[in-house]
Structure formats: C-alpha cells, structure tokens
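Box 3.1 A note on notation
Throughout this textbook, protein chains are presented in two layers. The first layer is the amino acid sequence; the second is a token string describing backbone geometry. Keep the layers aligned when reading.
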Amino acid sequence: MKGSLEERFWAKVQPEPNTGCWFWLGATVAGGYGHLGRGRREEGNIRAHCLSWEIAQGPIPAGLVLHHRCDVSSCCNPQHMVAISQSEHMRLHSTHKKGGDAYAVRQKARLTCSRGHVYDIQTTYYYYVKSEGYTSRRCRTCNREYLREHAEQINIRRRRSRAVVQKSHDHAVTSNVTRHRTPILPRNADDDRSGQVRG
C-alpha cells in the first residue's frame, strides 16, 4: 500500500467504541503487537502502538517503554498507554492475572531457568531484543555453558577444515611429484644391436 507512514497507519486502525481501544488490523508479531514497515526495506519496521504514541505525543522518552494500561496488545490508542521504565514494565506484566501474552507472563514469573538455576541478581542478566521491542532475561550459568559448547563446536569444525585442506594439499603434492618424475625411455634399435653377442 502506497502513502506516507502515517496514512498507512490510520488505514489499518479500527476504533472500538465500547472500550476506547484502537484495534490494529494489520500484521502482528509475537504477543499480538501490530507492526508495519517504515517504507524502504533498510529502514526496518516499527511497532504500531509506538508509532501511534509518536504521532500523538512525540518521541518515546529515552530509557522508557510503553505499557498498555488496557492490557490489549493490539491497541494503538495513545491514551491507553503510559511510558514507564523497563523494570516496572516487567513487574506489571509478571503480576497480570488476565490478558496479555500468557506464555510471557508464565516465563517472567518463573523462579528458576530450565536447568534449575535460580534467577537472582548475581545469576541473571537482562538484554533488550531490539527487533521485537522487549526485554528478556538469561541465566548466566547456562549462558557460560552455551558459549563454551559453542566454542568447542567451532574448534571442531576448524580442525576438520584444516584436515581437509591438509589432505588436499598432500594429494596435490603427490600428484605433482608423480607428474614430473623422469620417465624411463625404451632403448632404441642401435642399442639393441650393439648389445647382441656376435657368434
């Protein structure tokens, strides 16, 4: 669909009169959040509710994220959003009793990782997933084990590659030596006659 980014945004928004939500009718990503392309491929995508906020309120304050007070991920009504810190945003999501992404709520409420390591300040770190627009957490112990195993796999592949290269090199050297070996020429007719014993 051609048109400016704002025009394409409004073409995919459907207000709901009872709740006041502006439902997004376009493409969505994990969690039900709407998104659309900025225009050119290299410009990437933007979340629909973030674009709605920028249209109405201006840029999102640095260090803050948008939280849906209506608990409807596809809602684009800027009056249903509030800019809060990421830690507060995660706390609110982990304490939600209804709506939202149930899987994300369950994951954020877990006290241990899949291998049984406790989530605490020393063993957990948080990172921002820019492509999806949310913050996730990871167990430091599991991450160290993953990096060690990944490094081992890389070393194994490198050793195999070196072995293949060395084998190819040895074969090339052997072929080259064979190809340049001095050939044994047959004796000519004169040599044969000169070697005969005369009776």
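Strands lie at 13-15, 22-24, 35-37, 45-47, 64-68, 81-85, 124-129, 134-139. The chain has two domains: 5-109, 110-176.
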